[in-house]
Every structure is written in structure tokens, then in C-alpha cells.
Amino acid sequence: MRFNFTLGLLALGLSLAVLVPTGAEGDSKNRGLTQEAEDELRGAGVDKYLGAFTPAASEDVGDGWVKHSFDPEYDQTGTPNGPVCIAGTEYSVFTRQGNPAKLLILLQGGGACWQDLNRCNLFSEAQEPPVGRVGIWDFDSKDNPFRNYSIVYMPYCDGSVFGGDNTVENDASFPGGVRHHRGLRNLSAGMDVGKAAFPNASTITVAGSSAGGVGAAAFAPFLARFQYGNNTHLTVFNDAGPIAVNLAAQDAVAARDNDWQFAQFYPASCTACSAFGQQTAIVDWRLENDRTIREAFYETDADATNIGFASANLPGFFDPLPPIIPFPDGLSQTDYRDLILTEHGALNAAYPDRYKTFIVSGDSSHTALQSPRFYSQDADGVLLNEWTDDFVKKRPFWSDIVEDFIPLP
Prior knowledge:
Layout: H1 5-17, H2 23-26, H3 35-44, E1 57-62, E2 65-69, E3 92-96, E4 99-107, E5 111-114, E6 117-120, E7 149-154, E8 166-168, E9 179-181, H4 183-197, E10 203-209, H5 211-217, H6 220-228, E11 233-239, H7 250-260, H8 280-289, E12 294-300, H9 304-311, H10 333-350, E13 355-360, H11 373-376, E14 378-379, E15 382-383, H12 384-392, E16 401-402
Parallel strand pairs: 4-7, 4-10, 10-11, 11-12, 12-13, 13-16
Antiparallel strand pairs: 1-2, 2-3, 3-7, 5-6, 8-9, 14-15
Helix pairs in contact: 4-6
């Protein structure tokens, strides 16, 4: 038990108090995205693939999951124009019925691919819904904040963190020589599936792990707003998708810009948004222009996977990426901690009530939502699943937590 009876009653009273319409959050005309922001996003083409693709087949695959498969839509040259994995193979999205008013949209992770670095999941079928009831997939656990939610689950196989829109040809380092970075198409197709399956969802969490966390923190919340409107209670949970970029690795930055072509979707008024700048800029812009969205970021400050990707293409660092463990020529734990605390700390400072972090120190593990760590990981004595529950239920004692530095041995 986290609180005694008296404090529990006080917390309940405060929780009810936040439901009273006050200020911008109580005025439906001032909820969510401003009209100007929506117009800018549509002008940039963020919504260009919404409504463009319909599943070719839907089938029950057991344990409540329904698989929705898309036709790659090959043209006469053999180029796929529909939702598709990086290797040109079929893309699928999965749904699971729960409370129709509550919806979890989960973007899976699986690395990234750019010129001369191929560390991404290639096929949708490699990431079909988990059979193990662990983490947020433990639907029987009373400690799972999402146990009764309806679910849209999107495998990740575009190599461009759900944001790319480009085909790269003649890449001798990639199997088959052609990379189809169709992240925005896949993401949009998944959002369409979600809207068709759960049209009346009013409490929505867009979440993602690793590469999926990057996608969840980038364009996915905008598509959720377009599909479900401003009156929904929209939250974003980024599970170890760093967003913060190591700008010293300029070759990697330039390769992602060239190969993924994601920067074309940034809104015009986001002057800090650039493929060559910090990608936290789009989160900042969203929080400024979406007046009721709330966002959470989980990370360990020695995350070996993210340190490895952030170090790729640095002078002296092995290329292509070696097994993802800390290397002398890559970022140190201190370097990575400084990067995430600087970028995500600035978001918390600017929007202290709506953007908060859960930063664990002295831990090199990567992601938690879909693992047993979701129930065992703590920071300063607070369990991650309880912190998440406070977040999604909008409790007033949801807090920003950054552990003091604990160096790894």
C-alpha cells in the first residue's frame, strides 16, 4: 500500500477535483490540437496515408487477437506502394478487444537501418503478438494499468522508426539491395485499423518500445488526434525510445535524413525541427500546440542498446554496429545520461504537469513495458507499473523521477 486511509481519501478528492472543468482543459474548444497546428500538420502531409489502405484479410489468430494483413500493392516495376516491411514483404496489424472506451496503441521496437548499418527487424511475422503473459501483456494482473484495454498492436519492420517514406535502391549492404522505409504508411494503416475496430475509444494511450517509442513520440500522437479528435484523453508513453540524438555522429544523422526522408513531415512553425537537430523538438512543438496531451518517458541511463545506436558512425566506433554493448570509442554512461537528461529535462521544465520522466540509474537494461521489469523496476522506491498507473489515470501525485547517478562497475 502506498498511502494510508486518510491520504487515500485526500488523493481521491484531488483526483475528482481535476475532473472539474477549469481553464483550457475544461473548455472543449481549447482541448487538444489547435486548428492552426492541425492545418500545419496536414499541410506537411502527416495525414497523407490515413484512409488510403484497407486490410486484404482479417483472421482470428487466437487468445483474442485478430490479424489484419495488407496487400503490398506492387506496381508493374515490382515496387510496393502499400504498407510494407523494409524487405518488401507483407505488413500486418493486430487488434484485441477489451473495454471499447479504452485503447492502447502499441508500436513494437526492433532497431533501425540506414546506409551501411542494418540492425532492424525485417519481417512483420517475426513480431506477431507475444504469447507470454508478461509486462503489459499480462491481462490477468490487477497491477497492469492496461489489463482491460482494447489494443492495436503494430509490428515494426520498416527500419525507419515508423516515420520514413522512401525507397533506397542499390544498397549492396542490405539483403536484396533495396530498402523500403514505409514507416508512415504502416503507422497510418494501423491507425485506420484501430479506428475501424474501436471507433468509440475516448481514453487512448499511444505507446512504443525502443524504435516504437521513437515512433510513439513522433508522428503517432498526431494521427491519433486526427482519427479520434480533441475530446479524447490522449497520453503518450515512450518506453526507451531516446528521441535525443547524438549530434556528434553526423554521418548517422545525415544517413537517416537521406534514407528515411522523415523531416518533410515536420510542421512549418516548428523552426527547431530538423533532421540535423534534436528530435525532441517535435515533442516540444506538440506539447505547445496540443493543450491537453500528456507524455511519459522511461529510460535507464546506461541503456546498452541505445548507447550502441547513439554511438554508431562515431569516428573510431565499429561500423557496422557491433554487438550492442558499451565500447571504449562509443558514448559513456555519463555521456548518455547527460544527453537524455538535457533533452528530456528541458521538456519537463517547460511542461512540468504534462511531461515527466522515469530515469533509472546504474542499469543497462533496455525497455520495460513488455517484460517482467514493468512490475519490478523502480526508481527512488517507486515501481514503474504504479507510476504508469498514476500517469494514465491522471492522478495529481504522478511525479517526475530522476535517480541520482550510480556508475556501472
